[in-house]
Backbone:
């Protein structure tokens, strides 16, 4: 049984086996394992064992099973007059090559020893550093395994710094593994100079293959990753991941210049080998007979070994009588157009209604400008689109067939030519998808190279329209890959929303629906410009998507896509429902009973009408391109639409932790949607009696910001809160992640404080810096010894200046309000636990990338009521710092004194402790003061440009310098003063009392 069949029957369990098997030619078949199963045909059923192999498209059935199920057309023991041996030369030649060139075919990644990839930047290019993309937490282990695998292979290596960084997009394969794609469309590709090496012309390739009667095709294993990158270019290929920065040592997929660099290496490798040609990673060798082919194969494989490259034996074909290549079939008679290029048009069924007829006539109109008198053939068909009864006559069928003959004739078809501009158009209907690749000829006319179409599966028909249109694009680029990869082309679509997703220079949008993100990674390696074309001018692809003949999806593609689709759809649905206090069945039942959502479901499965909507239906209509049906539920992107009867229950659960309006919107927006959700959230928060009773007054001033730490748990802020309800609490906040810890203190002694901190550090590690106030617990010698022993830099805020410990002070305020709100909802410990869970799980705009404290702390979302939440919208941090006065070591200053009769004492700056803290020495000894408590000695000579700006309270309290009295009498004359006719108000001095607390407990 082949891997494709195993996937088709649902991936049943595979058990180990010692069974050996060989092919008819004697070659060994790799058996992966055995699958017990039941095989039925009609009324006959038999238990059997299937053996899973690694070889694709290999499905064999034993004689006993064939006879039991009566599958044989002839008697098993009958004599055949002729036995086909077409495959025997191929297998014999392949086995011979595998034996003689084992190094080329062995497993592992090769490395080119003859050339390196060099990337050249444009002169005006500037570095672009993009933040990392979020990775689903369930997939983190496999992503880390892939990163480790690439590290072991030498493909990537970690770096600590880089000016360039691109995010990665993770694609999960159907076998559970992942593929990492670097999204260099975010900046690097735009900054790279074009590598001036053209792809070979088809005529040049075919010239090398003329006269061949037997052919072989070789396929390189992970071709680009076998090409090393020059040292000076490695930093350009840095990727940003959740594990940090890594740079590529090999040429990755997705770099704009990679195809031309790779083609140059292939041409150099094969330049003196006759009968061999390479188009990117496909190598074709021809021979006039088997001996000649083997001789040339030996030459090519020897050259590949010299270059250090390796091949995938399962993808290589030997001793073939014909091959498909660049839209042609090559055999002993030469080359001829591949019938598959025109199959979509030749098998196009006749229109069955006015809508499909209009689509076909649109196709005729598109090409009619290039063919004289084509409009005469459509005259009988034009009559059917008028207000007449539909009647498809024999005359209509005749003209329909004649038009199709013209469309696939040489008048409208041309052969692939890399020197001509390429246009790829794709479209989707409710039933199918269609695509056409065309050349723009020198005279401006458009000629098709190939057409393609297929019908949609039942699952795909449930896609939203934007997903169907995106699927048609992916179908087109995969179908025409050989003709468009490595060169620039234009992609046409009649669905405007796709431009915002696939045209973005910042990469695939993070919040794009998962399926579209996965498809977007397919386009990362292509160099294209996407353009919008109105539907009225899109006949070449529209007709192919609506008039589907026998072009159904390939069996293996259906299996892979169906499995991917099912797992992807259910994963999105489960993620959304897990965050809600209702079950999937409840949402499904309520959706089916909701009149509005039932109407929306009908439109999603058919088509939205062109009429005016009102109320909620208008909101759904405006978002119709982002809606899709999943198991009778409606999804808006990754969020589930909640029916009316469940909205109150969902709102109540979202507000269980009493978040504010903005935080509740961020939390709810990660899981659910309905048109009036924002308004309902605002009403819920404003009408919550607990929130109203604990509402705080607006903050009058902002504290001085500390420098941002570089990693979690680098700097902690600690403070005591209370007494609250007769209890004291120890508060610790991590400055980087805003992760809070709260301990109920039986007493506030130094020993108890050290005991709590030791417990905390045993779980999370010892921080580099601990910031506290001047409480007796933190000023004790035992606490200083504790910090020194653990290598902690202990910083205490200056006396009477609690703002310097603002991180802890701010959280104390939040914590007090949380206890007030949660009063009566349980014990103090229960209220604290609920509050901490909500706070740690809610996106925080002050955390990097707007993550929650838990995600920033652990790199994952903790399991809470809502399971997970997406990062809230990033908000640029606004600098709220006032003008900061700086002092240098040795500066003569006055410091504010809080003891004695003098309010200012002279001193000298001896050490700078931070951005705003200084150690000052004077007659009073040595002390620490904040910049707002320091005044520069006015006797120091200063120029106007470097005089500092002083706070008003410091200027008013500054000592006046004494001026020596001059006893010499001088004559003077009173000057005439002018009194202005304005009212003079008395000066009001600003009185600042630092002894007052910022709030009362």
Residues:
């Amino acid at each position: 049984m082949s891997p494709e069949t195993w996937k088709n029957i649902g991936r049943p369990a595979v058990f180990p086996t010692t069974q050996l098997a060989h092919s008819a030619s004697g070659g060994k078949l790799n058996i992966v394992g055995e699958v017990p199963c039941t095989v039925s045909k009609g009324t006959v059923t038999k238990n059997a064992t299937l053996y899973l192999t690694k070889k694709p498209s290999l499905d064999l059935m034993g004689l006993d099973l064939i006879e039991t199920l009566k599958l044989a057309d002839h008697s098993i023991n009958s004599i055949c007059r002729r036995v086909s041996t077409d495959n025997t030369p191929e297998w014999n030649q392949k086995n011979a090559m595998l034996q003689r060139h084992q190094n080329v075919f062995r497993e592992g990644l090769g490395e080119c020893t003859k050339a390196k990839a060099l990337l050249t930047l444009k002169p005006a290019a500037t570095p672009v550093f993009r933040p990392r993309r979020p990775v689903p937490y369930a997939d983190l282990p496999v992503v880390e395994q892939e990163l480790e695998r690439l590290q072991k292979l030498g493909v990537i290596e970690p770096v600590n710094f880089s000016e360039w960084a691109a995010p990665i997009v993770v694609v999960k394969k159907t076998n559970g593994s992942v593929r990492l794609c670097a999204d260099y469309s975010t900046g690097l590709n735009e900054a790279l100079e074009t590598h001036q090496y053209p792809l070979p012309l088809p005529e040049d390739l075919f010239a090398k293959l003329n006269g061949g009667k037997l052919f072989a095709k070789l396929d390189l294993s992970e071709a680009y990753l076998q090409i090393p990158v020059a040292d000076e270019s490695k930093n350009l290929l840095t990727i940003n991941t959740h594990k940090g920065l890594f740079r590529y040592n090999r040429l990755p997929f997705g770099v704009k210049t990679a195809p031309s660099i790779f083609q140059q290496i292939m041409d150099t490798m094969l330049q003196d080998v006759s009968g061999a040609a390479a188009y990117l990673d496909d190598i074709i060798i021809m021979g006039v007979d088997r001996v000649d082919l083997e001789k040339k194969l030996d030459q090519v494989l020897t050259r590949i070994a010299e270059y250090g490259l390796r091949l995938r034996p399962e993808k290589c074909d030997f001793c073939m009588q014909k091959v498909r290549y660049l839209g042609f079939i090559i055999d002993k008679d030469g080359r001829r157009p591949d019938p598959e290029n025109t199959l979509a048009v030749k098998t196009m069924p006749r229109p069955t209604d006015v809508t499909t007829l209009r689509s076909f006539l649109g196709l005729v109109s598109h090409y009619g400008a290039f063919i004289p008198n084509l409009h005469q053939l459509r005259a009988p068909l034009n009559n059917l689109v008028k207000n007449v009864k539909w009647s498809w006559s024999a005359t209509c069928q005749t003209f329909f067939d004649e038009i199709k003959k013209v469309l696939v004739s040489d008048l409208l078809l041309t052969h692939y030519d890399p020197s001509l501009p390429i246009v790829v158009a794709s479209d989707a209907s409710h039933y199918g998808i269609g695509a056409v690749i065309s050349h723009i000829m020198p005279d401006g006319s458009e000629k098709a190279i190939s057409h393609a179409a297929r019908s949609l599966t039942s699952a795909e028909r449930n896609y939203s329209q934007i997903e169907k249109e995106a699927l048609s694009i992916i179908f087109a680029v995969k179908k025409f890959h050989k003709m468009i990869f490595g060169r620039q082309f234009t992609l046409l679509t009649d669905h405007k929303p796709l431009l915002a997703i696939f045209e973005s220079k910042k990469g695939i949008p993070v919040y794009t629906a998962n399926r579209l993100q996965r498809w977007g990674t397919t386009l990362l390696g292509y160099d294209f410009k996407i353009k919008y074309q109105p539907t009225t001018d899109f006949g070449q692809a529209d007709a192919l998507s609506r008039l589907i003949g026998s072009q159904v999806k390939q069996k293996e593609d259906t299996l892979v896509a169906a499995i991917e689709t099912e797992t992807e759809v259910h994963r999105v649905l489960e993620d959304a429902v897990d965050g809600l206090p209702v079950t999937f069945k409840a949402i499904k039942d309520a959706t089916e009973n909701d009149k509005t959502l039932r109407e929306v479901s009908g439109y999603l499965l058919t088509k939205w009408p062109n009429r005016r909507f009102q109320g909620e239906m208008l909101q759904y209509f405006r978002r119709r391109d982002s809606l899709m049906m999943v198991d009778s539920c409606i999804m808006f992107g990754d969020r589930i639409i909640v029916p009316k009867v469940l909205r109150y229950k969902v709102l109540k659960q979202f507000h269980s932790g009493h978040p504010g309006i903005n935080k509740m919107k961020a939390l709810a927006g990660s899981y659910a949607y309905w048109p009036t959700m924002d308004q309902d959230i605002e009403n819920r928060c404003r009408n919550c009696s607990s929130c109203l009773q604990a509402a705080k007054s607006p903050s009058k001033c902002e504290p001085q910001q500390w420098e941002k730490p570089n990693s979690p748990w680098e700097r902690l802020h600690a403070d005591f809160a209370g007494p609250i309800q007769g209890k004291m609490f120890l508060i610790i906040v991590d400055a980087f992640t805003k992760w809070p810890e709260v301990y109920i203190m039986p007493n506030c002694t130094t020993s108890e404080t050290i005991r709590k901190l030791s417990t905390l550090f045993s779980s999370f590690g010892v921080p580099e810096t601990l910031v506290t106030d001047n409480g007796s617990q933190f000023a004790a010698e035992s606490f200083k010894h504790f910090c020194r022993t653990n290598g902690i830099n202990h910083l205490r805020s200056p006396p009477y200046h609690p703002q310097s410990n603002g991180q802890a002070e701010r959280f104390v305020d939040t914590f007090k309000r949380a206890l007030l709100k949660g009063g009566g909802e349980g014990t103090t410990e229960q209220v604290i636990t609920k509050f901490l869970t909500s706070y740690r799980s809610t996106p925080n705009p002050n955390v990097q990338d707007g993550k929650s404290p838990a995600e920033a702390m652990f790199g994952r979302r903790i399991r809470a009521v809502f399971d997970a939440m997406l990062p809230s919208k990033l908000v640029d941090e606004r600098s709220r710092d006032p003008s900061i006065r700086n002092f240098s070591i040795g500066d003569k200053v006055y410091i504010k004194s809080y003891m004695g009769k003098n309010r200012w004492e002279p001193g000298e700056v001896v050490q700078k402790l931070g951005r705003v803290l200084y150690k000052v020495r004077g007659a009073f000894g040595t002390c620490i003061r904040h910049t707002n408590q320091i005044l520069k000695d006015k006797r120091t000579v200063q120029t106007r440009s470097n005089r500092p700006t002083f706070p008003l309270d410091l200027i008013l309290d500054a000592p006046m310098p004494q001026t020596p009295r001059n006893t010499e009498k001088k004559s003077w004359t009173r000057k005439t003063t002018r009194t202005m006719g304005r009212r003079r108000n008395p000066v009001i001095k600003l009185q600042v009392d630092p002894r007052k607390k910022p709030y009362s407990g």
